[in-house]
């Protein structure tokens, strides 16, 4: 089995204390074959992420890890961009000359409000519709490879307003998927939702994966979104089962931002 984790954070992200070398050691211990680190980054001074990233340290950490673990673990350098459809010129300037293998795009804030605050006075339909409309802007305009945790809002919404009704949101979701497919932007199965008692499912729901496949989508990555050493690679098998159930034959890795398929027949579940 070729085990991948294409969404992991370390202390190069503002919300993690994990040390990259320790993450790699745990990944090797678990039998993970390939990991892509995807540290948070934002150019918006009002975003919580802003100001933490030191690219020279991050690149140095990656180079050291690649050298130390080259015989046991394939290591890729990625980034998770916060609202990359906004301030595009600033993102382009900040990232110029850095060779990433993989770029995730995500929505953590809407109109400069964290998602928890965005939810404050909204009922279910309006909250999710507004969120997916922002996701549509992202996939229409941003320079990314994969959309991270498509329906992330449910992490904060479940306890307050519940999950969304797929049928109610189908029109806007189809618009998002159409743009993603048109621009060769993939989806990830983000397994962090499995670990949440209130969520209890991946990001996105399997219905969205099935719709993505039906519409012609192919590029699919799996990521734990782990911010801790011990949870690297969590729920990989569950994600593979979701992918198979949704009709996919491949999952993808990336090299210098080029997608590389791995046939799922190679996995033993």
How would you characterize the overall build of this protein?
The structure is a single chain. It contains nine helices and eleven strands. The chain has helices at residues 20-30, 55-69, 88-95, 115-118, 124-141, 154-161, 166-182, 206-214, 236-245, and strands spanning 4-8, 34-41, 74-82, 102-106, 109-110, 113-114, 146-147, 186-190, 220-223, 250-255, 258-263. With 269 residues, the chain is an alpha/beta fold. Helix 1 packs parallel to helix 2. The strands form three sheets. It has a seven-stranded parallel sheet with strand order 1-2-3-4-7-8-9.
How far apart are the termini?
A: 8 Å
Number of helices: 9
User: CATH superfamily, please?
Assistant: Metal-dependent hydrolases
**Which runs of at least 5 residues are low in confidence (pLDDT < 50)?**
none
Number of domains: 1
Instruction: Decide which structural class fits the backbone.
Output: alpha/beta
In CATH, the topology is named: TIM Barrel
Mean pLDDT: 97
What is the strand content? Answer: 15-25%
Strand order of the largest sheet: 1-2-3-4-7-8-9
Radius of gyration: 17 Å
Largest sheet composition: 7 strands, parallel
In total, the number of strands is 11
Shape: globular
Q: Class in CATH?
A: Alpha Beta
The name of the CATH architecture is Alpha-Beta Barrel
Name the helicity range. Answer: 25-40%
Pathway: Amino-acid biosynthesis; L-histidine biosynthesis; L-histidine from 5-phospho-alpha-D-ribose 1-diphosphate: step 8/9
Family: Belongs to the PHP hydrolase family. HisK subfamily.
Keywords: Amino-acid biosynthesis, Histidine biosynthesis, Hydrolase
EC number: 3.1.3.15
